[in-house]
User: Fold these one by one.
Assistant:
Number 1:
Amino acid sequence: MLFKRFLLLALTFCLLSCAFADSIQGAQMQQQTEQTQQAQQAQQGQQAQQAQQQQNWNHGGQQLTISQNKTNAWEDNGVQYSVFEVTLVNCGTTTIYDATVVAESNFIITKPSDVWTVEKVSENRYHFPSYLCQNGLEAGKNITFGYINKSTGPAVFSVCDLQFK
Ligand SMILES: *[C@@H]1O[C@H](CO)[C@@H](O)[C@H](O)[C@H]1NC(C)=O
Ligand SMILES: *[C@@H]1O[C@H](CO)[C@@H](O)[C@H](O)[C@H]1NC(C)=O
Ligand SMILES: *[C@@H]1O[C@H](CO)[C@@H](O)[C@H](O)[C@H]1NC(C)=O
């Protein structure tokens, strides 16, 4: 009789602890799933950010934004060359009549003809071509210039001295 009771008690205990273990495991699994999801979301966010950074390598002023694309690349005698197309977009609401584009770093140009459309002001500094200084870059419009860099990566640009009339 006593033995039977003991057996029943033991069985109950066993069932209870199994259920408890199950629920703990369930909670742990859920936590793990949430953690995995969070990690995935963080990774996706990071990837999106990286993609965005590649699209817009450098933002210049708030009104004139810079983005660049590599449009061509080749190798000559073991030297890498890349052609980049840089687009300046007037994101503001007023016309811009001139701006200075400064190549901050990684801008190694072999000869003057390696940069086109913009006009050189001084070393590593360029400004709008004269027709654009006359007509202005209207809100929402863009200008594209190009350069050849003796490497595979882009140069780093900034813009300053925006001129309004
Ligand atoms: C860069 O290239 C991508 C893909 O071809 C294109 O969608 C984007 O408009 C280009 N950006 C510029 C600034 O030319
Ligand atoms: C630049 O302007 C052209 C037409 O004027 C347009 O097709 C192109 O999408 C614009 N590019 C950007 C990056 O705004
Ligand atoms: C541009 O070319 C120069 C000369 O080869 C190089 O030093 C520089 O690193 C290149 N820019 C980038 C971003 O790779």
Note: Residues 67, 69, 85, 87 surround 2-acetamido-2-deoxy-beta-D-glucopyranose (ligand 1) (CB under 6 Å).
Number 2:
Amino acid sequence: MALKTLSKEETHAMRKRLIGQSCRLFYSDNPVKIVRARGQYLFDEEGTRYLDCISNVHHVGHCHPRITEAAAAQMDLLNTNTRFLHDNIVLYANRLASTLPRQLCVFYFVNSGSEANDLALRLAQQYTGNEDVVVLDHAYHGHLKSLIDISPYKFRKLTGQKEWVHVAPLPDTYRGLYREDHPDPGQAYADTVRDLIEEVHEKGRKISAFFVESLPSVGGQIILPRGYSPKVAEYVRSAGGVFVADEVQTGFGRLGRHFWAFEQQGEDFCPDIVTMGKPMGNGHPLACVATTEEIAKAFTDNGVEYFNTFGGNPVSCAIGLALLDVMEKEDLRGNATRVGTHLKMLFRKLQSRHHVIGDVRGVGLFLGVELVTDREKKTPATKTADLLVKRLKEKRICVSTDGPWENVIKFKPPMCFSVDDADLVVSCIDGILTDLEQNCPDLEKDNIGRD
Ligand SMILES: Cc1ncc(COP(=O)(O)O)c(C=O)c1O
């Protein structure tokens, strides 16, 4: 039976009436109604095609037929919970294990990045017997209460910082405490964590975990400086804590050469816990925590069952397995490297033509373009970023912004994004920025003097 089709206006009116208004829409002035999608393209109710540069969730492409087939076939056969033996969960865990360092060999399947990070917090606290957590400034680790507490990006706007949460500086070498000209920013930023841990100890408190995105995305697509994570892990472990790598946005080959973004910190670096989510199920709710035998044993030894009704069910795991197959078959990591390198090179060229582009950074198909009004002072060009996003929508290109001032244009499209798509995006941005320079020179006037 076909579902009733609503006009766009009816959908919008019902959405306003029935759905909590804190669940925001993209382009809230004039939202887009998407009715179908394929690959890197979204189609609205009139059949207009939009290029999706936002969705790192629809990792191998929207509605990939191989994923749909795997889901439908398993759905037709069996879907149950993990209290029965089933091949899919063990085969999938085994495939994930082959992508990770040997030590990370125990898996818990859950339904969202938030559930994964909440479980990581429980694992860390149970294993260490400590409570306190160190996080990076501007970080976001999920929407559960436990995670709002460890997400400065959220708690600063809400109830504030809990006494068991400690915030270390974001290791941003573009505009942070130590910049590109510092001889060893990795060590210098790691030492800020060491100092913070000392302060925590002076208060008579103890660290359970250091949580970090392997490439802080909510903070504005920040590349952790070389040597940072191994040093921090050393400090955190010697304080009795564990290192949690949040790979919810960055995992599954998005960076191209590396399957996991933490691998950028060197072959010998291994976190104690890795959390994953968004791209795992290509849109199906599938997420996971990987950890060591020792940490898992401590969690088991508390004698309390961990039961998750939907996590790791046969349909989810069939989808997860199909996604890994598609990635290999279509060489999507190779594509992320090729197209990502091309896109970054084009952005760098654009930077030489448009003064508003202060920095271009990122790896593979996880890029950020930071807009500033003044390259010396690095004043965030938030209004330009906002207008650029709106103008790109008129060109049928969807992009988003991030960073503390929402002035970093973020690119994390489906991994099938092509060189032609990259060329189109850059030529549209070039045209829009040229137009803004000529016709809206006072756009950022209110921002002058802002840090
Ligand atoms: C880095 C990071 N961790 C965790 C989460 C939470 O994931 P979810 O929305 O699937 O609960 C997000 C979501 O945006 C995220 O960006």
Note: The longest helix spans residues 332-353.
